[in-house]
Specification:
Organism: Ditylum brightwellii
Number of domains: 1
GO molecular function: hydrolase activity
Strand order of the largest sheet: 3-2-5-4-6-7-11-14
Oligomer: single chain
CATH architecture: 3-Layer(aba) Sandwich
Number of strands: 14
Helix content: 25-40%
Keywords: Hydrolase
Strand content: 5-15%
InterPro entries: AB_hydrolase_1 (IPR000073), AB_hydrolase_fold (IPR029058), Serine_prot/Carboxylest_S33 (IPR051601)
Family: Belongs to the peptidase S33 family.
CATH class: Alpha Beta
Structural class: alpha/beta
């Protein structure tokens, strides 16, 4: 379904009209060969149903490459390089891949052995505005579908097998949830492929060695997220100017000025060249927002961690000591990280200890708000490099 805002963009004084009726609570390097080359099958508890198969059905996502601190316009040339390890970057809700450009530029500039692949998730950025991409991302707009889009896009780019699969995935907020979903689903897909074809794993991405989750709080989305979507969906379209949107959001809708300013970066010229419309699809955004509370975030962390309790030999284990981990970065100024939630994560952390080190690592950036990659960019990069991604 096309977004209401897109349907009405050339109508006078039209509204995107998405109604939010539910109330939420405040729950808040050298090439490294992947573990799956040992042809082991991973078994998870059957507390969660999955329809994933070895044949991945997903859409294609718009993407851009960042190598050596620079955006690379020749995507074919960038994709054909074998001298760097790929790191996938996933943006937050209502955003796009370009939101993580600065972070990816800094990381690849400091670590020339890494290349960054920035994706526009379904219903967002150029994946939403370019029909050749948006036509491939059909409903349902679930987390599993979003992760399958990532897997399918990597297959299309031939980023599969033990030598070319991305070594890491880094996601902020909604993107962090999908980073975890992706890590989990790649394990499932590899498990199914091992079971069905005797161990041929060259045509699908292997699970990432590093999963970085940037200030993604388990549970339902905070009520303020619904407030923002309700506000932007009620703005008359087309929007006369970026300044107009910022004024309406702050003075009429009560949206934080920083968020309102950021929203102006998510505009594009309307199809009739009269003002602006959004670069995201509000229908898709609402659908995935409603999926937040359905994701078994903590259960998936446990599942992904179990892969590392396989019986590796000592040499292999030492090599993998700082790889394959789930790394959770918390914003010190985000009140959604409650003491109860942190204690629950610490219990999981203690359960996933192998060789005296847990495969769930948690970091806190004391002076950062939710936008950790903006509020404390240098601190975040130091944490990521300390965690083994370099």
């Amino acid at each position: 379904m096309q977004a209401l805002g897109r349907q009405l963009v050339c109508s006078s004084n039209s509204r995107a009209g998405v109604s939010i009726i539910h109330k939420v609570t405040k729950q808040s390097s050298q090439k490294i060969q992947h573990h799956q080359q040992n042809s082991r099958v991973f078994s998870f508890p059957h507390r969660r149903a999955f329809s994933s198969t070895s044949s991945v059905s997903g859409g294609l996502l718009h993407h851009e490459w960042v190598i050596g601190g620079n955006v690379i316009n020749d995507t074919n040339s960038a994709n054909s390089r074998d001298d760097t390890n790929t790191v996938v970057f996933l943006h937050g809700l209502l955003g796009s891949g370009k939101n993580l450009r600065t972070l990816s530029k800094k990381i690849t500039e400091r670590n020339p052995n890494l290349s960054a692949l920035l994706l526009d998730l379904r219903g967002h950025g150029s994946t939403s505005t370019n029909a050749s991409f948006s036509s491939t991302t059909e409903p349902p707009h679930t987390f599993e579908s979003c992760a399958n889009d990532i897997i399918n896009t990597l297959q299309n780019l031939n980023l599969v097998g033990s030598e070319r699969s991305p070594v890491a995935v880094v996601g902020h907020s909604f993107g962090g949830r999908l980073a975890l979903q992706y890590a989990h689903q790649t394990i499932i897909h590899n498990q199914n492929r091992l079971s069905s074809d005797g161990g041929t794993l060259q045509q699908i991405p292997h699970p990432p060695l590093h999963t970085w989750i940037l200030d993604s709080v388990p549970g339902q989305a905070h009520a303020s997220v619904h407030d923002v979507i309700q506000a932007v969906s009620s703005v008359d379209l087309p929007i006369p100017s970026k300044k107009h949107l910022q004024t309406v959001l702050t003075k009429e809708k009560g949206i934080d000025p920083m968020i309102a300013a950021w929203m102006t970066t998510n505009l594009r010229k309307s199809s009739c060249n009269k003002g602006f419309t959004y670069t995201f699809d509000l229908d898709v955004a609402m659908s995935v927002l409603n999926e937040f509370g359905k994701q078994d975030f903590l259960g998936m962390i446990r599942d992904v961690g179990k892969i590392h309790h396989l019986d590796y030999d000592k040499e292999s284990m030492e090599k993998e000591k700082k790889n394959g981990r789930i790394n959770l970065v918390m914003a010190g100024k985000n009140p959604s990280w409650t003491e109860d939630l942190k204690k629950e994560l610490e219990l999981i952390q203690s359960d996933l200890v192998s060789k005296e080190e847990s495969f769930l690592q948690m970091y806190k950036l004391p002076e950062a708000g939710h936008w950790v990659h903006v509020d404390d960019l240098e601190g975040l990069i130091q944490v990521i490099e300390k965690g083994g991604l370099h």
